[in-house]
Amino acid sequence: MIEKQHIIDRFISYVTIDTESDPHSAATPSTEKQWDLANKLVDELKDIGLEDVTIDENAYIMATLPANVDHDVPVIGFISHFDTTPDFTGANVKPQIIDEYDGLDIILNPKDNMKLSPSYFEDLKQYKGQTLITTDGTTLLGADDKAGIAEIVTAMEYLVQHPEIKHGKIRVGFTPDEEIGRGAHKFDVEKFGADWAYTMDGSQIGELEYENFNAAGAVVTVKGKSVHPGYAKGKLVNSILIAQDYIDLLPKIEVPEQTEGREGFFHLHTIKGNVDKTQLEYIVRDHDKQRFENRKQLLIDLAKNLNEEHGKEIVTVEIKDQYYNMKEKVEPVMHIVAIAEKAMKAVGVEPIIKPIRGGTDGSQLSYMGLPCPNIFAGGHNFHGPYEYVPVESMIKAVEVIVKVAELTAAEKK
Ligand SMILES: [Zn+2]
C-alpha cells in the first residue's frame, strides 16, 4: 500500500539536511540549522493537506489531521524529533541504498575498508532480501529520528488520500533537541491537545516501550585539607582517599556492566580530584520507584557515615532527578499500549515489549500530562556511522500508525 520509492525519497530529503543539536547552546533550537528541516517540514505538512500547521519560536511543529467520523473519538498524537545527536557528525550525509540485501558484508567505505558486517551486527541477518539504507561510513544516517518523521508524514498523507479509513482527530508533533535531552522541555502539551500520543523513536521493527528508568545525577564532593607531607601527621586530610572509601562502600555489582532488564545501578562516570578536593559524579538508575529512592538515600547515608567517622562535614552529596519511569503514567491507561500492540499484530509485526534502560521524550511528556509510549521507527546502530534502516521496517511503521488511528476510532464506536 505504501510505495517504497516514495518513502525512500522522503527519508533521503530529510537526512541530507544537517540538524545536529548542541548541548553547549542555551538556545532553542540549540542550532540554527535545525530550522532548515523544520521549515521544510512545515511546508510539507501543508502540502499533504494537514490543517492547523504551526511552528513556534522554538521550532516546535504541530499539525492536525481532522477526524472523518461523527462520533467521539479520543484525540491521539504521533511525535518525532528532527535533530540528530552531537555524538557523531550529521553533515553531508550520503545515504547508500542496498536493494535486495544479500546477507553478506556491506562495504560502507572502500577507502577505509569500513564495513557493516552481519558477523558483528547480527540483527542484519533478519533483513536479507530487503532494501537497506546505510551511510557511506563518514557520518551517522539520522534514521534516529528522521525515519520516525518520514513515517508519520507518510501515514498522514496516506490517511488524507484514503478517506475510507475512518479515524478521529490526529495531532502530529515534531521537536528539536531531543538528543540533548530537551525535546520535551518546551513542548506545549495543552496546545497539542491529545489524550495520548506515541513517539515514533524506537529502534528495530516491533519495539513497543512504556517502561523506562527513573533517573538522577549525583555529585559527591569530598573536602580535604592539604598540608606539606613532611609535617602532615594528624593534620592532612586526603580527599582522594576518602573518596575511594566512598566508592568502596557502594555495592560492587550494581553497575551498568553487571546489570540488565529492570536491574538498577550506580554508575560512576567521572572523578576529578586532588588532596584538597575530590568530586565523584554518578548517575543513578532504577525502574522501580522505591528502589530508586532507596539508592538516592544510600548515597546520602554513606556520606553521613563517613562524616561521623571523621568527626566533621567532609563529604556532601548533591542529587538531581533527571526523569522518571513513564510506566506510572501509562499503567492507568494501558489500553493505549494495547491498541499499539493490536495494530502491530494486525499488520503482521510481532510486538517486542521490553523496559528501556534509558529514557525517552515520552517519559517526560507522560509526566507533563501526555501519556506517551514509544513505537519502533525501524533503524539500528543509532548515533554512529554503522546506523542503517530497512525500508520495509519503515513501511511497517507507517502501517502501524494508520492502524492505530483506525483502531482508536473503531474501539470507541
Ligand atoms: Zn531518537
TrEMBL record:
<keyword id="KW-0862">Zinc</keyword>
<dbReference type="GO" id="GO:0008237">
    <property type="term" value="F:metallopeptidase activity"/>
</dbReference>
<dbReference type="GO" id="GO:0045148">
    <property type="term" value="F:tripeptide aminopeptidase activity"/>
</dbReference>
<dbReference type="InterPro" id="IPR002933">
    <property type="entry name" value="Peptidase_M20"/>
</dbReference>
<feature type="binding site">
    <location>
        <position position="81"/>
    </location>
    <ligand>
        <name>Zn(2+) 1</name>
    </ligand>
</feature>
<keyword id="KW-0645">Protease</keyword>
<dbReference type="GO" id="GO:0043171">
    <property type="term" value="P:peptide catabolic process"/>
</dbReference>
<keyword id="KW-0482">Metalloprotease</keyword>
<feature type="domain" description="Peptidase M20 dimerisation">
    <location>
        <begin position="210"/>
        <end position="309"/>
    </location>
</feature>
<comment type="function">
    <text>Cleaves the N-terminal amino acid of tripeptides.</text>
</comment>
<dbReference type="InterPro" id="IPR036264">
    <property type="entry name" value="Bact_exopeptidase_dim_dom"/>
</dbReference>
<keyword id="KW-0031">Aminopeptidase</keyword>
<dbReference type="Pfam" id="PF01546">
    <property type="entry name" value="Peptidase_M20"/>
</dbReference>
<feature type="binding site">
    <location>
        <position position="201"/>
    </location>
    <ligand>
        <name>Zn(2+) 1</name>
    </ligand>
</feature>
<dbReference type="InterPro" id="IPR001261">
    <property type="entry name" value="ArgE/DapE_CS"/>
</dbReference>
<feature type="binding site">
    <location>
        <position position="144"/>
    </location>
    <ligand>
        <name>Zn(2+) 2</name>
    </ligand>
</feature>
<feature type="active site" description="Proton acceptor">
    <location>
        <position position="178"/>
    </location>
</feature>
<protein>
    <recommendedName>
        <fullName>Peptidase T</fullName>
        <ecNumber>3.4.11.4</ecNumber>
    </recommendedName>
</protein>
<dbReference type="Pfam" id="PF07687">
    <property type="entry name" value="M20_dimer"/>
</dbReference>
<feature type="binding site">
    <location>
        <position position="144"/>
    </location>
    <ligand>
        <name>Zn(2+) 1</name>
    </ligand>
</feature>
<dbReference type="InterPro" id="IPR011650">
    <property type="entry name" value="Peptidase_M20_dimer"/>
</dbReference>
<keyword id="KW-0378">Hydrolase</keyword>
<keyword id="KW-0479">Metal-binding</keyword>
<comment type="similarity">
    <text>Belongs to the peptidase M20B family.</text>
</comment>
<feature type="active site">
    <location>
        <position position="83"/>
    </location>
</feature>
<dbReference type="GO" id="GO:0005829">
    <property type="term" value="C:cytosol"/>
</dbReference>
<dbReference type="InterPro" id="IPR010161">
    <property type="entry name" value="Peptidase_M20B"/>
</dbReference>
<dbReference type="GO" id="GO:0008270">
    <property type="term" value="F:zinc ion binding"/>
</dbReference>
<keyword id="KW-0963">Cytoplasm</keyword>
<feature type="binding site">
    <location>
        <position position="179"/>
    </location>
    <ligand>
        <name>Zn(2+) 2</name>
    </ligand>
</feature>
<feature type="binding site">
    <location>
        <position position="383"/>
    </location>
    <ligand>
        <name>Zn(2+) 2</name>
    </ligand>
</feature>
<dbReference type="GO" id="GO:0006508">
    <property type="term" value="P:proteolysis"/>
</dbReference>
